[in-house]
Amino acid sequence: MNPKIWLSSPHMGGNEQRYIDEAFKSNWIAPLGPNVTGFEADIESYLGQNSHATAVSSGTAALHLGLMLLNVGPEDEVICQSKTFAASANPITYLGASPIFVDSETETWNLSPELLEEAIKDRIAKGKRPKAIVTVHLYGMPYMVNEIHGIASRYEIPIIEDSAEALGSSYQNQKCGTFGTISILSFNGNKIITTSGGGALISKTPSLNEKALFLATQARDNTPEYHHTSIGYNYRMSNVLAGIGRGQMEVLEERIALRRSNYHLYHSALKGINQLSFLEEPTSYLSNRWLTCFLTDSEATREGLRMYLAEQNIESRPLWKPMHLQPVYQKCPAYINGVSEDLFKRGLCIPSGSNLTENELNRVILAIKMYFRV
Ligand SMILES: *Cc1c(COP(=O)(O)O)cnc(C)c1O
């Protein structure tokens, strides 16, 4: 049996170990320290736009903090893209608020502007203005930023931009992670760069980052004794893991280039197969191509191909199952047009890591061609 080809595995650059060694030598084995500060500065200078970054233990933690900063609480409704990973929606539930799911459009697979506006109007008509909107750049493809943010600002609803999959993507030359009132990044092991586990909360308002930091470090009031006037969390990133992040930031541009070149290689090798269609970048959209995905012509083809690849020891995965179809969220209000469900049925993600060898990429291409007998 050929060795396993993974969907997306960690890819170290070389200097991560040096930053970790520094943490050990200086005994900064703590949830704060020079690597955390350095990593935050690296993220800020990469994103530009006057961004302020707070490094935390995960992307999910950053979303949870972000919703708290927007005062989301019990009784509130928060709109969330239905087609996403559950971590986009779960923190809404942690706070006792109700997620309202909205379906996708076909051009970027993200939030449909028409349906978003319809949902907002309907919620307002039912007596409740949504407290926030969680938007997602799925698989690294930016959502329709102008349209979505235009609607959100018309109804004066803040956006939490879930950029967990889109570090390095941009829309009209502005980086993803800089569009929301609050934005979040993830450095989980499968993302474009990783700290083994980690995330960041990004805003342009330093007081929001200060409040995030306060909540992420157990909400200790500024007194010598341990005095608490709010409930805190233990969400800060460790200085050891931030060292991995600093090394990874040095190679981020290379990682984006490699993921994009994987996409282009797959696209040019497989575009002749008429049962497959790829998600192309609309003009002025740049995707980091975190995962290369395509649609097949039917659920049966998708499943057949997935099983065939698994037999060849090649990992592949259906596109995210929409939240409105998840048992835990089935009862939530949802504004649906069928797009996310169709994408879920027909779509497949294929191995996309920046550390795939030419030989591995060719094995994937050959296996797909074999399946379609071309
Ligand atoms: C990975 C991911 C998250 C969560 O990030 P973690 O760091 O794993 O907690 C949130 N949203 C999306 C869209 C993701 O892909």
Q: How is the secondary structure organized here?
A:
Layout: H1 16-25, H2 34-47, E1 52-56, H3 59-69, E2 77-81, H4 90-94, E3 98-102, H5 113-125, E4 132-136, H6 145-154, E5 159-162, E6 170-171, E7 174-175, E8 182-186, E9 199-203, H7 206-216, H8 239-250, H9 252-270, E10 277-278, E11 285-286, E12 292-295, H10 299-311, E13 317-318, E14 334-335, H11 339-346, E15 347-350, H12 358-371
Parallel strand pairs: 2-3, 2-4, 3-14, 4-5, 5-8
Antiparallel strand pairs: 1-9, 6-7, 6-11, 8-9, 10-12, 12-15, 13-15
The structure holds pyridoxal-5'-phosphate (PLP).
Beta-strand fraction estimate:
5-15%
CATH homolog superfamily of the largest domain: Type I PLP-dependent aspartate aminotransferase-like (Major domain)
Helical residue percent? 25-40%
What separation lies between the terminal Cα atoms?
23 Å
Tell me about the largest β-sheet.
8 strands, mixed
CATH topology tier name of the largest domain: Aspartate Aminotransferase, domain 2
